[in-house]
């Protein structure tokens, strides 16, 4: 729409005038382009929090998702735009804020996950102050923000998450605690920081399935595994 173009080209005056004229017309304000982006998505992407605020006051829906499943708040957190994050959350009804913070995109990431992945400490701290679940797990592998911080070797983020109550004993779906992910990593300060906080049984690496399968394979005798007359389609296989 014309509003999409005005925002993309950062024509602030024209954008504000169109928003003023179309206030209350939700169908227009929430119109999505070919990437399923609304004007609010674009205002966040182009880092124009004033435009975003006026769109919200005019009645746009802040929870519409783009082609990646991102709401405008997801994008603001991924970009580290604290002003946009503040505008979007302040215009959210208080009772509805928890579900907005816990919404996941199509990769299963919450706003906190995205801010953590990018290492935006100020955004992470702000989200946690609003009540974001510090122990929320990715649906595909069960990593929390603390697991992500260890993976990314971000010691400051680890400290911040622990300070805000991150569960150091939370394990991924494969059974790994954040401390166990420190093995083989360069940043030993993270390992030292988590070791005394982690339960003893979650400090040793769990046995791998490969080891178990190799042990089970070794239960067969050599004679049981030796066949020299295997045929496929009537033809004998060469060993």
TrEMBL record:
Residue spans of biased composition, Acidic residues class = 207-225
Q: Which keywords, in A-to-Z order, does the entry hold?
A: ANK repeat, Cytoplasm, Isopeptide bond, Nucleus, Phosphoprotein, Repeat, Ubl conjugation
Q: Which InterPro entries match?
A: Ankyrin_rpt, Ankyrin_rpt-contain_sf, NF-kappa-B_inhibitor
The molecular function GO annotations come to: NF-kappaB binding
**Can you say where the ANK repeats lie in this chain?**
35-67, 68-91, 107-139, 141-173
State the superkingdom.
Eukaryota
Q: What do the Gene Ontology cellular component annotations say? A: cytosol; nucleus
Q: Where is this region: Disordered?
A: 205-225
**Places the protein is found:** Cytoplasm; Nucleus
The processes (GO biological process) annotated in the record are:
cellular response to tumor necrosis factor; toll-like receptor 4 signaling pathway
Q: What is its main location?
A: cytoplasm
The record's section on SMART domains has: ANK (SM00248)
The similarity annotation says: Belongs to the NF-kappa-B inhibitor family.
Protein task = Inhibits the activity of dimeric NF-kappa-B/REL complexes by trapping REL (RELA/p65 and NFKB1/p50) dimers in the cytoplasm by masking their nuclear localization signals. On cellular stimulation by immune and pro-inflammatory responses, becomes phosphorylated promoting ubiquitination and degradation, enabling the dimeric RELA to translocate to the nucleus and activate transcription.
Q: Which PANTHER family match?
A: NF-KAPPA-B INHIBITOR ALPHA
Question: What is the recorded name of this protein?
Answer: NF-kappa-B inhibitor alpha
Q: Which organism is it from?
A: Nothocercus julius
